[in-house]
Design goal:
The chain has ten helices and six strands, in the order H-H-E-H-E-H-E-H-H-E-H-E-E-H-H-H. The protein has 297 residues and is of the alpha/beta class. The chain binds iron/sulfur cluster.
Length: 297
């Protein structure tokens, strides 16, 4: 995997940034960096192949706008032909500005669909008041997206998660789930019918935020439903932000570790044959065992 370099030039002194020529140069650099990172991720993980029909999921947030924008640019120069199709799932949250995405997408050279499904009513009925609704909401959304993709012959589903989301998920699983697992750049759904890709795998959230500002994407706020991230996610976000302030680049180092696993240095017996480590050729029949077998064995 290639190294990921992110230069936060938008932290340049305000006076310098105010110079339109400097601002333009920095904006061009940022756009180029995002194109390079998305292109690299697509190549490293073989995310898009010739003839693919890619459903690009747009929520109205900064990340998915940036993903569609960069993929459209890459499509023009790509060595293989593939289709892009934008999709927004209108979940019927109160106050959702229905006109924003169709207006934006009509101006782009990309086919699009607004899929209407009232998951909001279901979630607000089922989840007790005061509890975060995001878990159930995401599951229902995923189901709707998978069903639509299958019914319309999409070969890939592109989601706008970025490096910071992936590292955050790693710590959520580590701290609260007792598992070392994150969000993969590419995955096959449990039913084996869908391939999900995350082209923003190598992109940093701060860059995507800056890009959204420059491009003036018509952002739809994410809190329309009144729900909030769970406390655990907030804690992990705050911890990572704190680390990043005191040790810039730490998130990228952690991300690199996700692509550099040493199973023999961990303790997962399914990934490494610790029992088979022996100076003898093989365990001999009848050799005394040190462990009492458990049903799990
Ligand atoms: S913030 Fe609202 S719309 Fe977004 S995942 Fe959570 S419940 Fe769903």
């Amino acid at each position: 995997m290639s190294a990921v370099h992110t230069l936060h030039n938008f932290n340049a002194p305000a006076a310098k940034r105010a110079d339109p020529r400097v601002a333009k140069r920095e904006a061009d650099k940022l756009a180029k960096r995002l194109r390079r990172q998305v292109g690299q991720a697509v190549e490293d993980f073989n995310m898009i192949e010739a003839g693919d029909k890619v459903m690009v999921c747009l929520s109205g947030g900064k990340d998915s706008y940036a993903m569609l924008d960069v993929l459209l640019q890459l499509q023009r120069k790509a060595p293989v032909e593939f289709e892009l199709h934008a999709l927004n799932l209108d979940q019927k949250q109160p106050g959702f500005p229905e006109h924003v995405l169709p207006e934006y997408l009509s101006k782009l050279d990309v086919p699009f669909t607004i899929l209407e499904q009232d998951t909001y009513s279901t979630v607000s009925r089922v989840v007790p008041e005061g509890k975060t609704m995001c878990g159930l909401c995401s599951r229902l959304r995923r189901g709707a997206l998978y069903t639509h993709a299958e019914a319309n012959g999409f070969t890939k589903i592109a989601l706008g998660h970025h490096m910071d989301d992936m590292v955050e998920t790693l710590f959520l699983n580590l701290f609260f789930g007792g598992r070392m697992a994150a969000m993969p750049p590419k995955l096959k759904s449990d039913a084996g019918k869908h391939i999900v890709i995350r082209p923003l795998t190598y992109c940093r959230e701060a860059d995507l935020e800056a890009y959204a500002g420059i491009k003036q994407f018509p952002i739809i706020p994410c809190n329309l439903c009144g729900s909030q991230d769970g406390l655990q996610r907030q804690q992990v976000k705050a911890m990572l932000a704190d680390w990043e302030r005191s040790a810039p680049g730490r998130v990228e180092t952690i991300f690199r570790a996700m692509g550099n696993i040493a199973p023999s240095q961990l303790a997962d017996r399914a990934l490494f044959d610790f029992a088979g480590l022996s100076l003898r050729e093989a365990l001999e029949p009848g050799q005394p065992r040190w462990l009492v077998s458990t049903p799990a064995d």
